Amino acid sequence: MAAKVALIMGSKSDWDTMRPATEIMTELGVEHHVEVVSAHRTPDKLMEFAENAVARGYSVIIAGAGGAAHLPGMVAAKTRLPVLGVPVQSRALNGMDSLLSIVQMPKGIAVGTLAIGTAGAFNAGLLACQILAVQDPALAERLESFREAQTSTVLDNPDPRED
Ligand SMILES: Nc1c(C(=O)O)ncn1[C@@H]1O[C@H](COP(=O)(O)O)[C@@H](O)[C@H]1O
Q1: Which part of the chain is the PurE domain (predicted)?
Q2: When you count CB atoms within 10 A of the terminal residue's CB, does the N or C end of the chain come out lower?
Q3: Residue 96 has pLDDT above 80, yes or no
Q4: Is 11 flagged in the annotation as binding?
Q5: Which of the two residues, 126 and 1, has the higher pLDDT score?
Q6: Ligand 1 atom 17: residue of nearest CA
Q7: How far apart are alpha carbons 88 and 85 in whole angstroms?
Q8: How far, in Å, CA of 40 to CA of 162, rounded?
Q9: Which pLDDT belongs to residue 163?
């Protein structure tokens, strides 16, 4: 089956942050492509990637970047596919720079911005699955099961002093 989600990131150093996106997509059976693409360091590759994303069969793009995080916005500028941006925690400014440079898009080009770091990456993967599930009943069922299991885990262990 061809990958429906492309997960790109600005640097290999982002991988530990972005990995949870792949884990939830794998758990829910969603094929995904993973690649380093940088607006700053590989601008021609970025343009080629974004321009051909529809033709390659992707439905959703997840883009993680840190610092001056232009990658999600630049990808969104060149494709009509939904782009989910994940701010990677930067050392100098704790990811506030990443967050603000992803979230503050000008009107007319949309990026869906997730939380800073691994939780944001996980939720980006989850949200990509939810978007695909609109047209995929089997995936929708797997998502329901994931949620039910998550709810049961909390309800079955209400004592905060126990693991
Ligand atoms: N924000 C961007 C872009 C981009 O937006 O195109 N390309 C790389 N980077 C970011 O630079 C940070 C440091 O990268 P290095 O660790 O490679 O120096 C990474 O978090 C990456 O996402």
Answers
A1: 3-154
A2: C
A3: yes
A4: yes
A5: 126
A6: 11
A7: 9
A8: 47
A9: 80
